[in-house]
């Protein structure tokens, strides 16, 4: 698994930087984009930048490779998935609050 998803000596570093730090930033970014009623595709350019920021943290703190297209793609894919999940969750809550009268009561809890 090492070498395919992460470059560092420890899987914990990948979890800390990509999933915890990058994931938290991605969740907040996806949520913010949804709260301003922007379309879902606006998440993609934001996550391209955040993917580079995550790669820079790997480089600056843990001596990872900065300009590695493969690891950049892995980091960007992870943060994009988290951001899209946050976008979907927030948009769902917005739609229920805004247009709840259109939903059958049994479907609100689904």
Automatic annotation (TrEMBL):
It comes from the Bacteria. The keyword Membrane applies. It holds the Pfam family DUF6867. The keyword Membrane applies. The chain crosses the membrane at residues 12-28, 40-58, 70-87. Residues 10-102 form the DUF6867 domain. Keywords: Membrane, Transmembrane, Transmembrane helix. This is DUF6867 domain-containing protein. The lineage of its organism: Bacteria, Pseudomonadati, Pseudomonadota, Alphaproteobacteria, Hyphomicrobiales.
């Amino acid at each position: 698994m090492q070498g395919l998803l992460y470059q560092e000596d420890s899987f914990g570093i990948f979890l800390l930087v990509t999933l915890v730090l990058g994931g938290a930033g991605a969740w907040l970014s996806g949520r913010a984009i949804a709260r301003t009623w922007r379309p879902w595709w606006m998440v993609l350019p934001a996550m391209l930048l955040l993917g580079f920021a995550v790669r820079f943290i790997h480089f600056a703190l843990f001596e990872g490779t900065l300009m590695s297209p493969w690891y950049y793609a892995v980091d960007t894919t992870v943060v994009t998935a988290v951001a899209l999940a946050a976008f979907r969750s927030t948009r769902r809550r917005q739609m229920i609050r805004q247009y709840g009268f259109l939903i059958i009561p049994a479907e609100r809890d689904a």
